[in-house]
Design brief:
Length: 259
């Protein structure tokens, strides 16, 4: 790439993204988590779902599994893998060196996220298509809400991944720090069991968890069960969480290792 091309923001971002793709290919553990875990887990979960309870709640297995598959893609392909990436780049002093050049802070974090985001987007599309065909879920009733749910979930997972590294001193401890978000989102945000099955009071609390709104848009957009008011509420909550996470990253993110 020419010097002129890399002095623009898109050029610098593209150059950094290419380097991150190369590094991701060398990290077998992160690559396995990003590529294969989200593809396997949803089908394992489908065997444990109470189909009778889904029917009573007005849901079908296909719609629920699509939401679960997208949830696992967001959590493992984007969030979990980026926690490792950000922590690794920080501990290797890569982030510190990048800040001494032309790259802005946002470009550094965004460039590092491009491979994981790309994998996450491809997986969301692939697992949705496979689940729709294999489980007879049909086509989404409101595809714009499904797409919006994914597009809101991805920047939230990126920002939360950067924030998670604040609470760790190494790559290994970063993965431990990521576990609460993974567990809470899988159980409480509808990643495994839809909120429609939960008791009303518990579901009302879980609606305010970070990833719940994005998954609500995906599931409700596919089934067509989401009203205009419910969709607007989910969008507002998702945008609010993104704003909170980005603000926290700006204030707390550590660019150098703790010594």
């Amino acid at each position: 790439m020419s010097t002129v091309a890399t002095t623009t923001s898109p050029g610098r971002l593209a150059s950094l993204a290419r380097a991150e793709f190369t590094l991701l290919g060398r990290s077998k553990g992160v690559l396995f988590t990003a590529l294969f875990v989200p593809l396997v887990l949803p089908f394992s979960v489908s065997r444990t779902v109470d189909k009778g309870a889904l029917k009573d709640a007005g849901l079908n297995l296909g719609t629920v599994m699509i939401s679960s598959a997208i949830a696992f893609s967001l959590l493992f392909a984007v969030y979990s893998s980026l926690v490792s990436v950000y922590a690794s780049r920080r501990e290797e002093l890569v982030l510190k060196r990048l800040r001494t050049g032309e790259l802005r802070d946002l470009e550094i974090l965004a460039g590092a996220a491009v491979p994981s985001v790309t994998i996450g987007l491809v997986q969301c599309a692939a697992v949705a298509a496979v689940c729709a065909a294999a489980l007879d879920a049909g086509t989404p009733a409101a595809p714009q809400l499904v797409l919006l749910g994914v597009l809101l979930g991805i920047p939230l997972c990126v920002a939360l991944a950067a924030l998670t590294t604040v609470f760790s001193r190494s790559v290994e401890s970063a993965q431990v720090a990521a576990m609460p978000m993974l567990i809470v989102s899988m159980i409480g945000s509808g990643g495994v069991v839809p909120l429609e099955i939960f008791p009303d009071r518990l579901a009302a609390v879980c609606e305010f968890l970070p990833l719940t709104s994005a998954l609500t848009l995906v599931r409700g957009g596919w089934s067509g069960s989401l009203s205009g008011g419910e969709a607007l509420k989910a969008i507002v909550l998702a945008v609010a969480w993104i704003g909170i996470a980005v603000f926290a990253v700006q204030k707390r993110f550590r660019w150098e290792p703790r010594r």
